[in-house]
Write a structure and sequence with these properties.
Shape: globular
CATH superfamily: MFS general substrate transporter like domains
Distance between the termini: 34 Å
CATH class: Mainly Alpha
Structural class: mainly alpha
Order of helices and strands: HHHHHHHHHHHHHHHHH
CATH architecture: Up-down Bundle
Largest sheet: none
Number of strands: 0
């Protein structure tokens, strides 16, 4: 159990990261109107600004946080981030102006970039053949947080718009104390490297790591995949209402079902699939399953059938941990934080681009008078993006799987 406690801490940290976002979502419209006044439409505009600012900071700071952890260690970076996260939620809990809320989201985007450090810790403590499966555990933890956050946030919101922020602060502070006692340092002098500012940004990190065999193309695949996969949170509520006539309660149930399916897939199924097929074939199988899921969702007209298809759409999630495993093998031990920071930035950039791309596509094909009328058009777009991922992956001229030489 003592050996497992650090892993448990890392997984709990990822759960809190993803849950913290969802925890405050149910109360944000009311909170924004409380501090800024205006209508619900005005609140939606500010809500978009707050969400985008969070993603932009995560994009910009992912490599910075990852590089800091390569230099100073995973432990101080993770514990410091949790402490700042707790204080940030407390500030947002008492915020009386929209500008203070914006500042809180900017700081929150920086602290959320520590998922890169969590993944780097996983890479540090895992054998090469274990990395993909353990990255799957991180994905499962994110899925669990995705389910629990909105559910708990909605319940706490009944106590007041500030209650979820106090709960998020308490979770972060409690986990920081837990980590203080159980988290060892995994960055030794053997893999520690100097901090270099020119590598501590998304563009510098991509330029440096992209010079390693295959990493540039694999990063592009990772980014395109994330843009495609974000179709679900981006348009599901609108798609389900338009196509099936669902109300908010049923939409929430379906999203929770999707989150549970993701957690089961990445937490339980990824290990036997990797053992049977290996990382490369697992990526291809995952891409194929994603393509089949997107095609099915673009054509489905029955809400019951859509719910039954949920496990199929979630099965495709086996692709990401397998892809991360391949990339982690190809990067030297002293650059694991930098790699995970780059991937965090790629995911954040996808979060910025995908909602705009998918909602605009939905508008073009689902608005009154649209020709052709196809509410599932965003899923068709995602299918095309997944096909691009598959073509680039198959033709990337990759060398055999293996560990990277030390830099």
């Amino acid at each position: 159990m003592r050996d497992r406690l650090p892993l448990i801490f890392i997984l709990v940290t990822v759960v809190i990261d993803s849950m913290g976002i969802g925890l405050i979502m149910p109360v944000m419209p009311d909170l924004i109107r409380d501090v800024g006044g205006g209508t619900l439409a005005d609140a939606a505009i500010w809500g978009g600004i707050l969400a985008t600012s969070f993603a932009v900071m995560q994009f910009l700071c992912g490599p910075l946080v990852g590089n800091l952890s390569d230099r100073f260690g995973r432990r101080p970076v993770l514990l410091s981030a949790l402490g700042v996260m707790a204080l940030d939620y407390l500030v947002m809990a008492v915020a009386g102006t929209i500008w203070l809320l914006l500042a809180g989201r900017l700081v929150g985007g920086i602290t959320a970039a520590t998922q890169s450090t969590a993944n780097a810790f996983i890479a540090d403590i895992s054998k090469p053949e274990e990395k993909a499966a353990r990255f799957g555990l991180v994905g499962a933890a994110f899925g669990i947080g995705f389910v629990l956050g909105p559910l708990i946030g909605g319940l706490l919101g009944e106590l007041g718009t500030r209650a979820p922020f106090y709960a998020a602060a308490a979770l972060a502070a409690t986990n920081m104390v837990f980590g203080f006692f159980v988290l060892p340092e995994t960055v030794t002098d053997r893999i520690r490297r100097p901090f270099e500012m020119h590598r501590a940004n998304p563009f510098g990190a991509f330029r440096h790591l992209g010079a390693l065999p295959g990493i540039g193309r694999l990063t592009v695949i990772f980014f395109i995949y994330q843009v495609a996969f974000f179709v679900y949170p981006a348009i599901w509520a609108y798609f389900a209402q338009e196509r099936f006539g669902w109300e908010s309660g049923m939409i929430g149930v379906s999203l929770a079902s999707f989150g549970v399916s993701i957690a089961v897939t990445q937490g339980l199924l990824i290990r036997p699939v990797l053992a049977r097929f290996g990382e490369r074939k697992t990526v291809l199988i995952g891409l194929a399953l994603n393509g089949a899921g997107f095609l099915a969702m673009s054509l489905v007209t029955s809400g019951a059938v859509a719910l039954m298809l949920t496990p199929l759409t979630a099965l495709g999630a086996i692709a990401m941990p397998a892809l991360q495993g391949i990339m982690s093998r190809r990067v030297p031990d002293d650059s694991q934080g930098e790699l995970q920071g780059l991937l965090t930035s790629a995911g954040a950039l996808a979060m910025i681009i995908s909602p705009v791309l998918m909602t605009q596509t939905f508008y073009l094909f689902a608005s009154e008078g649209a020709s052709p009328y196809l509410p599932g058009a965003p899923f068709v777009l995602s299918l095309v993006l997944i096909a691009v991922c598959a073509v680039v992956f198959i033709n990337r001229g990759a060398r055999p799987e293996g560990t990277a030489p030390a830099s």
